[in-house]
Structures are given as C-alpha cells and as structure tokens.
Fold these 2 entries.
Entry 1:
Amino acid sequence: MSLKFKNILWDFDGTLADSSGDVWESILWAGDKFGARIGDFFTADNANLSKSLDEIFQMLRPFPGKEKFPKYEAYVNCHYRSLNSFSNTRLYKGIKELLKELLQNSVENIIVTNKPRVALEQILYRKGWFRFFDNWICPDSLDACGQELGNKENMIGSLLYTNTVERQKYVLIGDSYSDIIAARSNGIDCIGVTYGDGDPYVLPLAKPTYCVDSVEGIRAILFADKNKV
C-alpha cells in the first residue's frame, strides 16, 4: 500500500494517550506542598491542561504568591518524573492498532512532545509502547549545537534538518492550537484531532490541513489514496 505520508509526528498527551489523570495528580500534589488547591471546576476540564503551568499556578487558592512559581514548577516536575506511577495513562482506543498498521507499511512513527524525556521514556517502557515508535523528541532533547530544543517548532525543525525525507512526506498529528502552528511554521501538513485535551473550538482557528474527531478519522486520511487526499 502506498501512503501519502512516510514520517508521522505524534503529539503524545491528548493525541496518542489520555494522560490527564496522572498529569493532574502531579499538579495537585505540588499545590498541596503549599497548602493550596485548585477548584474542581477547573480540573474537571482537561482542556485546561493545554494552558501553561504558570497559568495553572495562578488558579491555586490560597494563592502562594508569584515568587513561589519556580518552586511549584520544581515540585510538579519532581512528582511527575520520579513519584508518578502513570497508572491512569492509556492509549486512546484504536491507537495501538493504527500504530502497528503503520509500522507494517514502513511508516516511521515519531513522538514530538512537550513531556520531558525521562517521564516519556518511563511511560513508554513501563507500558511496553516503545516498540511502536522509531524515535521520540522532547523539549530537553539537544540540537546539533548541544542546546535544548525547548519547543515543538524547534523539535520539528531539528527533525527536518537531520532527515533527508522531503517535507511533503511529513505530517504532524496533534490536539492543540500550538501543535498546528508548530507544523505550519515548518511547512509540513498537520492533522488536528478534537477528541483529546485541546479546545475543539480553538483548534480549527489554527487552520490544520485536516481536522478529525476520532482515531478512525486519522486512519482514513493516512491510508487514503495519495492522489485523492
């Protein structure tokens, strides 16, 4: 079977896997260290996980004070990287089967995520998901000059720079506005998914190449006749 794309770049949280329960666990644990909580109205909406950690910090009550943010961030990172069991992180229904099918068709599956490498690799190896991916790249991955990449725009750019595959063979699949902007800024196609953590009303405003509401919708695009897509 001839597929339109040969390198599939996958966002992790909210696209490949529902990790919201475990992420909230670390966020709330860090707040407890200050004797502060975040209202249920906020944590009930997983779209809020697409906000920056600083924005989430602002929701703590009683508010610890902006000068405490670096320590709060360190607590979140410590818990998520070292204390979290990731027991609630699961692949969305149909993702495992799609990944297997793509690998059988000689497609490269690459994770491009804002999750730190140590946390991502713990999840992939604990769950046995590492075998579905050819590579993964994170904010703390290094560029050719030994500098941390930091954001998805840089991550994608680094992949394109070090790979001889032409850009039209790449597609990024993600659930957030920033995912789509990162793909478009690097001149590659993107599939926006509305089943994850991102805001389904904001996502289309970034003008993804395609927009789907299910894993089957992703498959339909990837396996469509390349002359008809």
Entry 2:
Amino acid sequence: MTTSVTAKGRRGGVREGEPEPIPPGLWKMGGVLALGPVLALLDSTIVNVGIDSVGRDLHSSIGAVQWVATGYLLAISLTMPLSGWAAGRFGARRAWLASVVLFVLGSALCGLAWSTGSLIAFRVLQGVGGGMIQPLGQAIIIQAAGPSRIGRVMGTLMLPISLAPVLGPILGGLVLEHLDWRWMFLLNVPVGLLILLLAARWLPADEASDAPRPGLDVTGLLLLSPGLTGLLYGLSTIGDGGPAGWAALAAGTVLVVLYGGHALRTGRGGTRAPLIDLRLFARRGFTVATANSFLQGAALYSSMFLVPLYYQQVRHVGAVEAGLLLAPQALGTAVTAMLAARITDRLAPRPLVLIGIVCSLVGTLAFTRLGSGSEPAGWLIAGSLALRGAGMGIIAIPGLAAVYGSVERAQVPAAAGAVNVLNRVGGALGTAVLTLALQQAQHGRPDQPGAAFGQTFWWVLALSALAIAPACLYPNTRKDTAKDPA
C-alpha cells in the first residue's frame, strides 16, 4: 500500500517526500482511545497488588481469591476475538463505547461485592468489556490515521500505555495504604465516565455502509474463545505441576486447531466471515509482523513477570518498590517509541526492528549475571532495563505500522483482533516457559536464589533472539514496504 502525500502547494501544502500533517482532531481522538487501554492496564496491575488484602477482608483462601485476577484475564481472552465482528456488526465506535460502559459497570459492581464469588463474577464482567477496548481502539485510530500516519500516531500514544504497568503498583500501594481495597475498583468509575464524555465529543460517528452486516460466527466463537481460554489458563498454571493445567492446554490446542480448519472453510466476507480471518496471513507483511508481535509478547510479558519476582524474592522489596524499579524499562520504551514514530512512516521496518532487537538483547545480558561472583550493580541493572525498554519501543511502532499497512482499510478491525490475540498468547507462552525454567533452576540451586534467576534470564535472551528470524523478512526499503505482496 502506498503512502499518500499531499501535493506541494503555495499555502498549507506539503513538500514532496514529507509526511502528511496530523490534524488536531486526530490527536484528540487518539488521546481518548489511549485512555481506554490505560485504564484497563492500571486496573489489572493495581488489583494484583491488592489480592492479599481482598482475601483477608473477604475471609477467602489465596487459591480462591486468585480467581479475582485469573477470571478477569480469562474473560478478556474469551471476548477479544469478537472485536472484529463487533466492529462490523455495530460499528467500531458503538462497540468501543459499549466495552467501556461494561468495564465501568463491572468496576462499580466490584467495589460493591459482598463475597469472593460475587467479586469474581463482577471481574468477569469487567473483563468482557476490557477485552475489546484495545483492539477496537486500535482499529478506529488506524482507520482514521491512514497508512501514511500510523507510525507517528501510534508512537505518541505508546507513552501512557508504556507507563501504566509501572504506575499501577504505585497507585495500588497508595490506595491500600490510605483507603479500602474497594477503591481499587471504584476509582475506575469517575475516570471511565470522563472517558465516555470525551469519547462522545471527539470520536467520529461510524460511517454509514450499505454492505450487509456480518452475522456472528457461532461455530468459530464456540471453538476459538474456549480454545484461547484453555491455552492461556493452561500456560499460566502448568508450572504448578498439577494435571489441570496440562489438560486445559491440550483441550485449548485441539479447539484452536479445529477453529483453524473451520475458519479456512468459512466464506470470506458477506454474512459468514470468521471471527479471525486466517486468510490475512497470506499477506507477507501481516504474517511477519504478527509473528514478531507474538515473539515480542513472549519476551516482554515474561520478563515483566521475572524482574519484579527477582526483586521481591531475592532483594526482599515490596510490590510498590518493585514497580518503581521497573520504571527505567517503561521510560525507555516511551522515549524510543516517540522517536521511532518520527521516522517509521518514512523508513523501511527491517533496520529499525533489528536495531530494537539488538538493544533488547544487550539490555538482557546483565541479568544473566545475577547471583554470580560478578553480579551487576544497581545502576547497571537500571541501565539494562532502560536499554531493554528502548529496544521494545523501537520494535513496537514499525511492527504495528507493518501489520496495519499490509491490510485493506475494511480489514483493520479483524487484523487488530488477530494481532492482539497472538500478542497475548505469546505473553502467556513466554511466562509459562520462564516459570518452568525458574522452578527447575531453583530446585537445582536451592541455596542460590539469585543464581537461579540469572540462569533463567538466558531463556529470556533466547526468546528475544528468536524474533530476529521474522525481523529479517521485513521489507528492507521503503519501496518494498509500499508493495502489498498478498
């Protein structure tokens, strides 16, 4: 797909080769749409800090109250594949607003929960709304921005999304210190209502279309959503060693494979479009970018699980302090994402993505020395986290631009659902791999907890290195990027 450039004019024109300007209305739209996933990310990280307080107040075991977090994540995995269908059926704006309403309603009910069971049920409702906020928001902003402005818009919007996982534990600690745990959920209500008011003003109405509205792919829903739920639940629990995790993983794999056969048989377009159209993967740019997103999800989410755990188990810091110690990685991501955004729309993705992977690999090396005789100093760990984050920021923007630049405008909602699902599954897979690796390392070195973490970080290095393979298949010149080799 070619990058459109306005012809040079005497007034308000754009010189040939310069990117199109971004109007203020597009920035306002993007700001509102970024607030949705930020609210969902803050909520999930805040709640993780307060699980212990919830269990004590509701007189519940840790095993039962853990479903407050797990139920939310499973609900997200159930509803995320529906984002493409919801956008086509009801309009992306209406579907996004409905998702935010469900999230806010779930938050209010969570704050009023009277038992562990009711809290888990309301968290599931929250997850039903939260699962579609990010893919629908991405679809709206990408369709409005067009291929020539994707990089700059998405790069700027990465700033609040990058900082949310760091701010969550800090805000959670402050809420638990000064307020009741219920305020972890109730604070979402006024913020969510503000987002809805801004969205009603700044989000454009859905475009009218004479095309038939797609019907729900019920067979695909019954296969894919439980399949993804089984995969994510199984990957998150196989480290416990029980049979339930492996059974869920096996069942989820079978259902996802069956969905693949069903999706390829289902007619393209019309009223029988599959939840996620696997024919999108016939496009080289889309396949390469989603494969890279899957592997980056594995490397990023797994390391975000491992680093705070190291600080808490080995250095014995609290959850809030552990969140603060992760700040260099988030800041690195935010800064380089904005810098990458300035050049992504003018350069080919391959060199940028490879530079980002190299930064990520170098930033991981110091952690492989944990527990050794030459354990890195605190400043080196902070610098390494910043470098890892910088690499992730460089990778993310050209990757997103490649995903959405490789599909037609009408296919953007389906593409958004696919890339978000694969990124989440990659994160669950990476976390499961690291959990098993850490448990084996701790079993082999019970008296050297730091060394066990250092050994496990070699797996993080390997996960990051795997991303080199798809990165080498990105276009190497801007001319190649403009071609759609579907």
